[in-house]
Amino acid sequence: MAGNAPTASEYVVHHLTHLNNTGHAQKNIVDWSVINLDTMFYSLSIGLLTVFLLWLAARKATSGVPGRFQAIVELLVDMVADQAKGIVHSAESRRFVAPLALTVFVWIFLMNAMDLLPVDLLPRVWEWIYAAGGGDPHHAYQRVVATADLSATLGMSCGVLLLCLWYNVKIKGVSGWVHELFTAPFGAHPLLWPVNFAMQIIEFLAKTISHGMRLFGNMYAGELIFILIALLGSTATVFGFLGHVVAGTIWAIFHILIITLQAFIFMMLTLVYIGQAHEGH
Predict the structure, then answer these.
(1) What is the CB neighbour count within 10 angstroms for residue 129?
(2) Phi-psi region of 39 (alpha: psi -120 to 50; beta: other; left: phi over 0)
(3) Please, are residues 209 and 30 in contact by the beta-carbon 8 Å criterion?
(4) pTM of the full predicted structure?
(5) Who contacts 1 (Cβ-Cβ below 8 Å, separation ≥6)?
(6) Are 165 and 175 in contact (CB under 8 A)?
(7) Rounded to the nearest 10 degrees, what angle do helices 150-183 and 91-113 cross at?
(8) pLDDT digits (tens, 9 = 90+) for 216-262
(9) Catalytic amino acids?
(10) Neighbouring C-alpha atoms within 13 Å toward the C-beta of 181
């Protein structure tokens, strides 16, 4: 940040504040009038990059000895196809669900991987651009990890929910699904209809919220740890600098596992929930 050096709390708050349509820090966790512009930019940009990379792999695929890029993509395709085949038993549905799961995995992995960039790199660039345009760099907020934004992860989990509802209707029919809503899991007695319906709605909500919260919680915690480690480098001491380098390197190496695992878990839960939509109680 330009001007006087920020305190530790100001540094953390600044890095955890989104660039939004209001131009100010968001005060409420849930505020439907606020749009996090940085989350929109990075999620859409990385989404387009994901589609481009997968298209490029398909376009350059050869039947001979594959190159490194093609080999990596083929491993991912085989992995996702095997998982989808074991969970979604409809071959017709897998024609859409398997590519979707592959796209979700790569997309979330790349969004998560933004956490591996130096904490101050892109925010500093944005501060310079903001100041060059006449703005106050102290208000040049920028968060680059879209999956550390609850609105993004819940948005993706809501998309999975809509797919589950679609497949429930497509596979079971409207009447069949409505019958299931009111008769499962406790039985078809009319006195149990309200209980069954409430249980079904709670199940859908619990799946959706936990799906999005799990990814958000892990990535938010990882981002916060990177910010705290970056504070070590601002102490202007040899021990602070060494602590920053050593701790940052160790956490970055460990975080590679986290970002991969979280992308895999989100993809697997997407397959599981869509697979459950194909099954009757």
Answers:
(1) 13
(2) alpha
(3) no
(4) 0.92
(5) 10, 11, 14, 127, 137, 138
(6) no
(7) 150
(8) 999 999 999 999 998 887 666 777 778 788 899 999 999 999 999 99
(9) 210, 214, 218
(10) 15
